[in-house]
Amino acid sequence: MPRILETRRLTPVTKYFRIDAPLIAAAARPGQFVMLRVREGGERIPITIADYDRTAGTLTIVVQEVGATTKRVCALEAGDEILDVVGPLGSHIDIPPGGHVCGIGGGFGSAALLCLMRELSARGDRTTAILGARTKELLILADELKPLCHDVEVCTDDGSAGFKGFVTQRLAQLIAGDGPGRPDHVVAIGPMAMMRAVAETTREPKVKTLVSMDPLMVDGTGMCGGCRVTVGGKARFACVDGPCFDAHEVDFDVAMRRNKQYVREEKQALDRLACMAARQAH
Amino acid sequence: MPVKRAEKTPMPMRDAHERAHDFQEVNRGYTVHHAVFEAERCLRCQEPVCIDGCPVQIPIPEFIHAIAAGDMAGAAKILRSANPLPAICGRVCPQESQCEAECSLNKHFDPVAIGHLERYVADWERTQPPAAMAKPTRPEKIAVIGAGPSGLVCAGELARLGYPVTIYEALHAPGGVLRYGIPEFRLPKSVLDWEIGLLKTMGVQIVCNVVIGRTLTLDELFDKHGYSAVFVGTGAGLPQFLGIPGESLNGVMSANEFLTRVNLMRGYEFPEADTPVRVGKRVAVIGAGNTAMDAVRTSLRMGAEEAMIVYRRSEKEMGARIEEYHHALEEGVKFHWLTNPLEVVGDAEGWATGLKCQQMKLGPKDASGRARPIPVEGSEFELPVDNVVLAIGTTPNPLLTRTTSGLLTNQKGCLVADEQTGLTSRSLVFAGGDAVTGAATVILAAGAGKRAARAMHEALAARVT
Question: Does A260 sit within 8 Å of B250, measured CB to CB?
Fold first, then answer.
């Protein structure tokens, strides 16, 4: 079982994990994901690969607590083992070299920019990261990203750090020529609403944009089709054809609606976990 | 001397009303009295044609004679020499179209219940103390990709031949479709675990959570990990969709998703197990193969009040085993024959509420040799449903072939492999099971795995000399 080597709380709801997983580290590419399971009878959840170190044989992921399983993951500490980790899964991000690539990270989505920006910068692309959060305390990994890209732009809704406003507002300024200038490619990773807003921002100025879709998944290897996303009017499997798709072709309405299929059960599982924790505390 | 009966000794089974709401096995299995009584019905033909009907060529009369003589250990030995998964095949093989179809008794009577007897012997074996661990005797390491039926059988056969074998499995538990597809009430996981445990005592290693084509490439297995030959048994796990409007509505899923949530992820234990599966009052399963029967019977057990099969052809063209069909009927499954789904309709929140269908009639034969269903004009109607489960077939998963050079596939995405040996377009890479044939049966996959193991043995022996 893969052992956790290091953990760090990034915000009250996000946690950074470095895991001993040499096979995955050797094969991983930006944009791919792993599936995790933390206990017998546990569910399989997809987590985007944040970074990897092939020499050290380690894999980095950042997990946000949203449901019962992610809460269980975030309760793990260095030295603990993760029951199942499989990957790297999905197709990696494929951008033609030589352009200016703007990576946009919303909330914990910033984590996945680590390996992407490193790889693109290393091959000579111009790289900009735009990181967004509601407020300064929720911003993550800005310092880690600074050495990996040419520019890091920070946006907060309340203006507590960097640009006051949404990532899309700052992106529109860049497209208009401000700061590092108009990107040739945009990659947006984060909450669905943010990715949709990015898609709308880049649609009219025709900036090629990829979004990293995060649908419900069961196996993550192409077997169940539960992760199907409507792209260009066709059903595509996020786990093998994606998870990154052309933002201007994705039907976000369908994607957001499909992600709510198990809201009731997710809440039930969360309540149950809270109940168990309370009982243990007594 | 007991009188030979015209009919098969019936399989004792649980009451339909009781079993339709839980996941315990439907068939209870023969007692020793049933087994000996049934074994005595065998005619001991001079030329046992039943063997020709068996994809793994089990010496059927021999093991049946051993049962009749009360020599269960002997029967088990004979059975296992030909089939490494008898407890599974005795439960899930379509015997009526294989061994039992060939049985000489068929001319006037019921055939010998070969499947029930196979199961009896294997279950007897499960009560015996486990065999000692075997150690490999040959130097060449062999990798098997996929721990489904073909991979398990291939690995078992190779271990018997003395090779150190490692199976790489993508999921967190071995078994492939036996784990994620076939439900507990038809194949208890304890039976699967026991068969896999036996393979382990034979020296087979199983490594889960490794996706060949992603975690490791096929070339790395040879170049970095020192394997001398590879067997590809990656199955046909990619679900097909109809492409009709409304398929992305909430409540519409593939049978693979539905069954995986329930079987592999133990969705029936939610919230004790973490993976939910939401089943509404009315569930329509599209298709009429074994997977469709598994899905529709599972939906009953998950609490559906009405579970129905929607199939565009008629009862005659149905692909399911006859036993599964009868069990489904007994449990109260409804069948809409000659009914073609046109569209899934939904409510304002995007949940499925109905299945728009069209009545069909049978026309002349089509390419599959079955009567072609033709739409009856003006016959459209809507079935109110909460869930639509698509069980219309699966195709091979392209993950491995996409990431491996020189591994040829046909138009359907199936691996090109020699029918007898399983050799693919790459030297020392063999393949078998659904990855080659497209979705078929457990026993055909087992047969292919067994033939490939022998071919690998020959290929490696030829290479050394």
Answer: yes
Average pLDDT estimate for A139-163: 95
Residues of B in contact with A89 (CB under 8 A): 211, 214
From the list B250, B274, B350, which residue is nearest A42 (CB)? Answer: B274
* Alpha-carbon torsion (B217, B221, B225, B226), positive or negative: negative
Closest-CA distance, B215 to chain A, in angstroms, reads: 6
* Separation in Å, CA of A70 to nearest CA in chain B: 11
- Does B172 sit within 8 Å of A86, measured CB to CB? yes
Mutation for testing the B interface, residue in A218, A231, A263 having most B CBs under 10 Å: A218
In A48-135, alpha helices (H): 68-74, 113-122
Q: In this predicted structure, what is the pLDDT of residue B64?
A: 96
Question: Confidence class of residue B134 from pLDDT cuts 50, 70 and 90?
Answer: confident
Given the cut 0.85, state whether the ipTM is greater than it.
yes
B214 → closest Cβ in A42, A89, A226? A89
Please give the helix or strand (H or E) that residue B428 lies within, else none. none
Dihedral angle at the C-alpha atoms of B317, B323, B329, B333, nearest 10 degrees?
-80
Per-residue pLDDT band for B3 (boundaries 50, 70, 90) equals low
Give the whole-angstrom CA distance, residue B94 versus residue B325. 12
Residues from chain A that touch B237, judged by Cβ atoms under 8 A, are 221-223
**What is the pLDDT at residue B465?**
52
Residue B1: per-residue pLDDT: 43
> In this model, does residue A92 exceed pLDDT 90?
yes
Distance from CA of B28 to the nearest CA of A (A): 27
pLDDT digits (tens, 9 = 90+) for B41-66: 999 898 999 999 999 899 999 999 99
CB contact under 8 A, A262 and B350: no
- Name, in order, each residue with C-beta under 8 angstroms of B235's C-beta and a sequence gap of 6 or more: B146, B148, B150, B176, B177, B396, B397, B433, B434, B435, B445
The nearest CA of chain A is from the CA of B158 a distance in Å of 26
What's the predicted TM-score (pTM) here? 0.94
> Is the CB of residue A57 less than 8 Å away from at least one CB of chain B?
no
- pLDDT at B464 (0 to 100): 59
Residues of A in contact with B275 (CB under 8 A): 43-44, 218
Task: Write out chain A residues lying below 8 Å of B250, CB-based.
Answer: 257-258, 260-261
Residue-wise pLDDT tens digits, B246-296: 999 999 999 999 999 999 999 999 999 999 999 999 999 999 999 999 999
| CA–CA gap between residue B333 and residue B323 (Å, rounded) | 14
The model's confidence at residue B16, banded by pLDDT at 50, 70 and 90, is: very high
Distance CA B199, CA B127 (A): 17
Closest CA relative to residue B170, chosen from B152, B153, B148, B189: B148
CA–CA separation, A18 and A63 (whole Å): 11
Query: B297 CA to chain A: closest CA distance, Å?
Result: 19
Helix (H) or strand (E) holding A205: none
pLDDT value at B441 more than 70:
yes
Q: Per the structure block, which two tokens stand in for B311?
A: 């199939």
Residue type, A187: V
Q: Nearest chain B Cα to A267, which residue? A: B271
